[in-house]
């Protein structure tokens, strides 16, 4: 991805404004609706000025999606793993991820999944994001089930991530339960299922 080094806070503000406009366009109109010209017109700048920051549409879309994939990584990085409190560990990890994916972020996740099928750059973003998330979930598994072999630990981590992914997609496709008591109940159910798997996997 080509993104020119910034020379001022004004340049940083413009780059963020371009990404924000592209994010909204991607969310509302999908990949095919994103246009450098439309974004430039919306921001009152020339296409050439916009291309100083992002030379192509895919460079810009990649930057937006990469920003979205960093957020769940940051959320997992903030989990305080406590070897003596399985419930708190799982509740915090599952709750933070599922609440994030219950928002508009879940739609970006779906867009990335589709783009990853056809473009290696998005496939790489997806693979890198999953690898990082899996590494954090494997840490949780290692703390809670220290007697598991490395292969079993990796296998269980994949099962847990698949469970969270599936539940998050359900939230996206049943928007009525995406907030309040609905999402809280689903998070609680997924958390309990993961705790059970951690206890019985060995």
Task: Describe the SSE topology.
Layout (H helix, E strand, L loop, with lengths): L8 H21 L6 H8 L3 H7 L3 H21 L8 H17 L2 H12 L3 H25 L5 H24 L6 H21 L2
Concise summary:
This protein has 202 residues and is mainly alpha-helical. 77% of the residues lie in helices and 0% in strands. It is elongated, with a radius of gyration of 19 Å.
Explain what the structure shows.
The protein has two domains: about 45 residues, Orthogonal Bundle (Arc Repressor Mutant, subunit A), CATH 1.10.10.60; about 140 residues, Tetracycline Repressor, domain 2. Helix 1 packs across helix 2, helix 4 runs parallel beside helix 7 and helix 7 packs across helix 8. With about 200 residues, the chain is mostly helical. The chain contains nine helices and no strands.
Search tags:
202 residues, single chain, Arc Repressor Mutant, subunit A, Tetracycline Repressor, domain 2
CATH class of the largest domain: Mainly Alpha
Q: Based on CA inertia axes, which overall geometry fits? A: elongated
Strand content: under 5%
Instruction: Find the structural class using helix and strand composition.
Output: mainly alpha
User: So, CATH architecture of the largest domain?
Assistant: Orthogonal Bundle
Distance between the termini: 43 Å
Please report the total strand number as a whole number: 0
Share of helix, binned:
over 70%
Q: Ranges with pLDDT <50 over ≥5 residues?
A: 1-6
CATH fold label of the largest domain: Tetracycline Repressor, domain 2
Mean pLDDT: 84
Number of helices: 9
Computed CA radius of gyration, to the nearest angstrom: 19 Å
**H and E string:** HHHHHHHHH
The major beta sheet can be summarized as: none
């Amino acid at each position: 991805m080509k993104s020119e080094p910034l020379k001022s806070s004004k340049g940083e503000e413009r780059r963020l404004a371009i990404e924000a406009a592209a994010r909204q366009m991607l969310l509302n109109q999908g990949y095919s609706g994103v246009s450098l010209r439309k974004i430039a017109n919306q921001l009152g700048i020339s296409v050439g000025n916009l291309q100083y920051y992002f030379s192509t549409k895919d460079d810009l879309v990649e930057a937006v999606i990469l920003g979205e994939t960093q957020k769940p990584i940051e959320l997992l990085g903030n989990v305080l793993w406590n070897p003596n409190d399985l419930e708190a560990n799982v509740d915090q990890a599952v709750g933070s991820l599922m609440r994030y994916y219950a928002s508009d972020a879940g739609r970006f996740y779906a867009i990335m999944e589709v783009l990853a099928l056809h473009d290696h750059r998005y496939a790489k973003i997806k693979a890198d994001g999953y690898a990082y998330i899996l590494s954090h979930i494997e840490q949780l598994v290692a703390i809670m089930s220290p007697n598991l072999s490395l292969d079993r630990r990796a296998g269980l981590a994949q099962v847990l991530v698949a469970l969270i992914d599936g539940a998050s997609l359900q939230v996206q496709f049943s928007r009525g339960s995406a907030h309040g008591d609905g999402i809280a109940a689903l998070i609680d159910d997924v958390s309990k299922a993961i705790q059970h798997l951690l206890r019985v996997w060995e």
